[in-house]
Write the structure tokens for this entry.
Amino acid sequence: MIVHFAIFLCTLVAMEGVGFLAHKYVMHGWGWFLHRSHHEPHLGVVETNDVYLLVLALVAITLIVLGNAGHDPLQWIGAGVAAFGILYVVIHDGVVHRHWPARPKPRHPYLRRLYQAHLMHHAVKGRRNSVSFGFLYAPPVHELKRQLREMRDSEARVEDGRQGDFLDEARG
Ligand SMILES: [Zn+2]
Ligand SMILES: [Zn+2]
């Protein structure tokens, strides 16, 4: 039982890492066409971004079914995936984006930090140069502000470089 619970908790923690990587490299990468709806101003009740939630649910259900069919401890890994999905819906959709009729206010310092960090994720337009890709863990806000500044500076440098090339060409 203890081992099972440990597997459940480890999966939940690991899922934050999986979620971070998926958000940064898949959802803001080749999967942007699905995630994009989530970064547009008019958020509906359902958005194409929810496809990712559906995939998560399918993975959790498959693992639980396989575990119950005798492939122990897959059901506990599935439970960890499911728990991550539920926390994601409650915290991300409920507390941060307030998609629900009841709009819980983030009072707890942990929730407030997640809230501010995720607003900063949404502050960047488009899929590139965003910060804070985690869902249940967020770095301190001052650290994210520093990352955003750095990103803007390097972007400006690239722009300057391009303009420089253009001028050189025009002169040459
Ligand atoms: Zn995003
Ligand atoms: Zn969001």
Notes: Residues 23, 27-28, 35, 39, 121 surround zinc ion (ligand 1) (CB under 6 Å). The two ends are 74 Å apart (CA to CA). The helical segments are 2-30, 32-35, 50-68, 74-96, 109-123, 141-171.
